[in-house]
């Protein structure tokens, strides 16, 4: 069997998508293993989940660094120490510096709760409702310097119902995220999806 790719996950909160990746990686035939979880918040619940599953964790607050590039240098130091092959952003609520994105380009992916290029940024479910969208979903994409702008790896779609709210859309899209992200990471780890 080929060597599994070493994957680090960056989170800011409960890390439900990270947990979905960890669960997928329990299968010995899955082409990646989650070897570390980093958060910009030491109290992030996802770090507890990672520790409980025997996964290395690290955290650092951006407030402790002089600027974004200095903070990203610390993230890079941690990822390099873990010998990460691939970086997955999973609800990591920081905009990364150009230098960091460039260093990891082609090895860093993100999941975004909309059908990109629609509804970039925050409150995607509110944006979809305000636009009168009839379908919504999530996208796994390559991370490039522009926010939520890299080429799509995979998408999952759901219908938007007349009585949907932010909360109902959030829950239904999250179910798709937890299915889509492990599938997309597997494509990247196997070399089936490449940037450029």
TrEMBL record:
Ligand binding ((6R)-10-formyltetrahydrofolate): 68, 93-96, 110
A Pfam cross-reference name: Formyl_trans_N
Catalytic activity: N(1)-(5-phospho-beta-D-ribosyl)glycinamide + (6R)-10-formyltetrahydrofolate = N(2)-formyl-N(1)-(5-phospho-beta-D-ribosyl)glycinamide + (6S)-5,6,7,8-tetrahydrofolate + H(+)
Domain Formyl transferase N-terminal: 5-185
Enzyme class per UniProt: transferase
UniProt keyword annotations, A-Z: Purine biosynthesis, Transferase
Active-site residues, as the UniProt record annotates them: 112 (proton donor)
Record-listed E.C. numbers: 2.1.2.2
Annotated GO biological process: 'de novo' IMP biosynthetic process
Pathway info: Purine metabolism; IMP biosynthesis via de novo pathway; N(2)-formyl-N(1)-(5-phospho-D-ribosyl)glycinamide from N(1)-(5-phospho-D-ribosyl)glycinamide (10-formyl THF route): step 1/1
Residues where N(1)-(5-phospho-beta-D-ribosyl)glycinamide binds: 15-17
Gene Ontology CC terms: cytosol
Gene Ontology molecular function terms on file: phosphoribosylglycinamide formyltransferase activity
Site (described: Raises pKa of active site His): 148
InterPro entries with a match to the protein in the record: Formyl_transf_N, Formyl_transf_N_sf, GART
PANTHER family listed in its UniProt record: PHOSPHORIBOSYLGLYCINAMIDE FORMYLTRANSFERASE (PTHR43369)
Similarity comment: family membership: Belongs to the GART family.
Free-text function comment from the UniProt entry: Catalyzes the transfer of a formyl group from 10-formyltetrahydrofolate to 5-phospho-ribosyl-glycinamide (GAR), producing 5-phospho-ribosyl-N-formylglycinamide (FGAR) and tetrahydrofolate.
Stated name of the protein: Phosphoribosylglycinamide formyltransferase
Organism: Devosia enhydra
